[in-house]
Specification:
The complex is a heterodimer of chains A (898) and B (84). With 898 residues, chain A is α+β, with helices and mostly antiparallel strands. Chain A is elongated. In chain A, the strands form 12 sheets. Chain A has a 6-stranded mixed sheet with strand order 38-39-40-37-31-41. A 6-stranded antiparallel beta barrel of chain A has the order 42-45-44-43-46-47. Chain A folds into 6 domains: 109 residues, Ubiquitin-like (UB roll); 142 residues, FAD/NAD(P)-binding domain (3-Layer(bba) Sandwich), CATH 3.50.50; 115 residues, FAD/NAD(P)-binding domain (3-Layer(bba) Sandwich); 75 residues, no CATH class; 88 residues, Alpha-Beta Plaits, CATH 3.30.70; 109 residues, Elongation Factor Tu (Ef-tu), domain 3, CATH 2.40.30.110. The two termini of chain B are 23 Å apart. With 84 residues, chain B is mainly beta. The longest helix of chain B is centred in the middle third of the chain and has 10 residues. Chain B has a single domain, classed as Folate-binding fold. Chain B has 1 helix and 6 strands, in the order βββαβββ. The chains are: A alpha+beta (898), B mainly beta (84). The interface between A and B is medium-sized, with 19 and 21 residues.
Chain lengths: 898, 84
Amino acid sequence: MAPADGGPASAAFDFEGRAISSNADDTIASALFRAGVRTFSRSFKYHRRRGLYCLTGDCPNCLMTVDGEPAVRTCVTPAAGVRRVTRGAGWPSAERDALSILWRLRALMPVGFYYKSMIRPRWVFPIAERVIRRIAGLGPVPRTPSGSTKERMNHHPDVVVIGGGIAGLSAALAAAEGGERVILVEEGAIGERIPPGALRDRIAALRDALSRHPSATILERATAVGIFEGPLVPVVGDDLLHLVHPLRIVVASGAVERHAVFPGNDLPGVFLGRGASRLAGVHGLTPGRAIVVATSTLEGLQHLDVLRRHAGDQRDATVVAVVVPAALASRVPAGIEVIADGTVVEALGSGALHSVVIEAAGRRRTVPCDTLVLSTGLEPRDGLLRQAMLESVRGAGDVTHPGCSEEEAEASGRQTGAAASTADWNVTNGAPPTSPNASGGFICLCEDVSVTEFEHAWDEGYRSTELLKRYSTVTMGACQGALCHAHLKAFICRRSPTSWAGRPTTSRPPARAIRLEDLAAGARVPVEHHTSLHHRHVGDGAVMDWAGSWKRPSNYGDVELEYWAVRRHVSLMDVSTLGKYRVAGPDATAFLEHIYPCRVDDLKPWRSRYTLLLNEAGYLFDDGLVCKLGDGSYYVSFTSSGGDGAESWLREWADALRLRVHIANMTASRSAINVAGPRARELLSRLTSDPLDAQAIPPGGLREVVVDHVPCLAIRVGFVGELSYELHHPSRQSETLWNSLLDAGRDLDVRPHGLDALKLLRLEKGHILIGQDTDFDTTPSKVGLDFAVKMNKPDFIGRTALQRIATLPRERSLLSMTFAGKRAPEEGAQLFAAGAHIGNLTSSRFSPVLGCGIALGWVRHPAGSPPARITARDTLGEYEGVVTRGPFYDPKGERLRA
Amino acid sequence: MTLKVICPNCGPRYSTEFWFGGEVLPPEAPDAPNADPLQADFERVWLRINRSGVQGERWFHHAGCRRWLIAERDTRTNEFHGPG
């Protein structure tokens, strides 16, 4: 509780060059107010001065840029720890804003003017848009990456209660006492907005009781931003994004005091009752020196009491008049002028309030004052409640019974779900002291929409809530309709006889503004798979990059050196990322025969075959190798990025076909090193006594060999187009094997190669990369892989679809092309023939061994055969190319068969 | 949005642990004598019932038992009725 004099300063922050001191209980706004700041922002469209108004975080008036973050609600943000605060809009400053001239020009900017003006000539709009963007708005968006380290945390309570007032605390306590696990979420600190007194004590007592309960958790300074299906309630906290998955939800988010509309209602000095009361009672600040209170509720009289007590402490602050319905007149303390049944018709002032015009008994009078406090009833803060049309979500307290008493709030919290009482909860004692038919004033403070503009829009034919909302942008601003939604509904209901016209607008998440960095909480660190050799690659200075969920070396510093090591000597590559599976069982052969488009039943033991994977639509989604180890025993591999999904695919078909097969995922337990290059056999023979010649392991063959005491399955593969052995071995022996190979091959200049070299090596052989050279609807024949599809097999997945596709004309093909010159076109370069666009490149590299550019690209050729000559165009120029037949390098495969 | 999928091996778990495998197709009927097998295949691959109500669905529990399961879900309420 703040001492009345504001207490000793405990901290300070910078406000546009001024040092502002604050005490422990201060919000940024209260510290600024104490320092004499009255203009808290400039309005969105007309740059009108705006001062503190609600102090409950519901209106847009106090939005400022805090430590680089725009649109922070300073009235609910503690001052502690804040370093720098600036007002968002205003030129040259919010205090003296030259743009306030816009208010005088308002006739030129009627509602929706940007839909109608600046359309012709067409070049006007891009310029106007840039100007408007600079003028309007809430401050610049930060350009630097967020340093947020926010993580996610899941909670699975029985109940989540949103709101820490009487109703919320009672609901949480009742649930906890009933044996339920409960989480209570409060946007601020519980009770901090309530002036000292019986109510604050009562809230403190409830909070203590709840915090002692072992099954209750209280999250303060945590904002529930929505209610999603599940149900799921994301709650943004200081250092965590809480994902709360409750069984039921109690929304006790309370109510906002009703925004009153009359000319001048946005002048600094006009306050909502709770705002003025908080300023006086909690922060020890008087909102002004001459105060007029206009109220129709008992709550308003409580605010009057707080203000009077506080004004009494401040010699020069007085409540000069109270405007109340006659029924309440007797309850106003003696010594204050009472204007019974009066109506506030206008607030006067230029930049700050200096008097209000009050009409009573048919006469108008002007009362000089610098503060007008309005307490004219409550509007439920029901955005969250309206989002969730779920059985398990209930409201309690002011949000469902606006204006209920403390006892009633407690009762409704304790019995959430029980039928609502029939009592008339929204207690107003007589007509509110403001007119519902005001002809001026702002309905929407966020977007500067006035009554006049509503009328214009109505006359133009926007005659339902949803249309009027979109056209005028009312309810679409920072407050998300907290103040204006009721006025929008009321406006339409007054003018339209149809019952549906004034329906509430749709409420959607987020209910409160949310930072992008909060949405991304926990997503900073994706699942990252490492091979057993990961630390070796990093230690060798490898540039690591993503490959699916894996991190793989792109290169070890010199791609060209790595490339020539494969072509001329011998090189190693860590291929442990391949998806690796054992498939075995009595039906294993029948199973693989069905899922692969190639033949499997004629495969001899210790032989392998290249396989495609097709889905039922006949489209290519992965490729790999099938190796036969013996009768009913296979070792199959998939690509690195497809390996994870392959398991679901294998199991799906094993289930569907009801075959007796076992599938074991060996991806993690088995690692693999590819030893490639003309001297690969020479290197391996130094480490093994097992035979490695073409007789023992022919191309496409495999054999169990022991390499320097590491048992390996050696598979002759041909992806890079040189003699190569893929050594599959137990993962924990991976480093031993890697070191042995590097040590034994030192005089052969053995070195590892990364993905950059691999992509060039495979392109020279014309091998496609699934996902890079293919689309989702690529059939094998479009990419020249017909050899791997045996249509004469009785059945395989995708066979019928391929038959059907074969009846359709083929329109696109992946073709090989060469480009003369020292540079190859960029990947993605566009292709032209005879001046017409016909496709694009998917893979392109300069081939050192061939001395020209080589590429794969998709070409459209609706009629007949594709063109022989082709032009590629990228950001740097044009390239003349020739369509060839692959592979580019060693077309007869002699090096492979060495 | 998180749904609670009932896995026969692991119990009720959040749908973020699963991959969705689509609706369960009716068993393949033996070809009618005059039916066009290519057209039948096309319909099977590309056309879905998209039922409003309870439908059988396949889910793969990738972050759990790594097995396929068939669950019944009411597409109007997203309520799961357990393995079908």
